[in-house]
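Renewal narrative, Specific Aim 1. Our central claim is that a sequence can be written position by position from structural information alone. The example that follows is taken directly from our test logs and has not been curated for this report. It begins with the C-alpha cells describing the chain, in the order in which they were read.
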C-alpha cells in the first residue's frame, strides 16, 4: 500500500495558499479526512524545509514560497524525507534457480529507476500553482465557481 503523505501535503498546501486567514491543523485535517496530529506531523516536516511557517500565539500556517515557485518535488522531498523519488519496490526473494528469478531484480531495478527519473523531472517542473489551476478548472467544469 502506498503512503499518502505526499498527496495529503499538497492538499494541505492548497488550503493554506488559498485561504485568506491562516489554516489550523484541525481545519486542514477536516478537509483532508484525517486527524490533526497527522497534519501536525506533515506541517512540521514542511516547516523544517521552509515551505510553511507558523507563529507562536497565532493559530494556523502561512505559505513561505509562492505557489508558482513551489515545485511538487520540494514538497515530496520534505514529507517523504528523501531527495530520491521512490515509486516501486522489488519483491525480496526471487528464486535464483529460475532464469527469470535470477535476472528479474537487475532488470526491474533499471526499468523502475528510469520511470522514477521521469517522475522526478515531472515533479520538478510541476508547481503547487499548477495543481491549484487544475483544481479551478475542475471546479468550473462542475459549475461551482
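The sequence written for that structure reads:
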Amino acid at each position: 500500500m502506498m503512503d499518502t503523505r505526499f498527496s495529503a501535503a499538497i492538499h494541505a498546501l492548497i488550503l493554506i495558499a488559498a485561504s485568506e486567514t491562516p489554516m489550523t491543523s484541525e481545519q486542514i485535517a477536516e478537509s483532508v479526512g484525517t486527524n490533526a496530529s497527522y497534519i501536525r506531523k506533515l506541517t512540521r516536516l514542511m516547516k523544517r524545509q521552509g515551505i510553511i511557517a507558523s507563529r507562536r500565539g497565532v493559530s494556523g500556517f502561512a505559505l513561505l514560497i509562492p505557489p508558482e515557485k513551489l515545485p511538487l518535488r520540494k514538497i515530496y522531498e520534505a514529507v517523504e524525507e528523501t531527495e530520491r523519488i521512490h515509486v516501486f519496490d522489488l519483491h525480496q526473494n526471487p528464486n535464483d534457480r529460475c532464469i527469470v528469478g535470477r535476472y528479474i531484480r537487475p532488470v526491474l531495478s533499471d526499468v523502475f529507476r528510469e520511470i522514477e527519473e521521469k517522475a522526478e523531472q515531472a515533479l520538478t517542473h510541476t508547481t503547487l500553482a499548477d495543481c491549484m489551476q487544475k483544481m479551478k478548472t475542475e471546479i468550473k467544469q462542475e459549475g461551482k465557481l
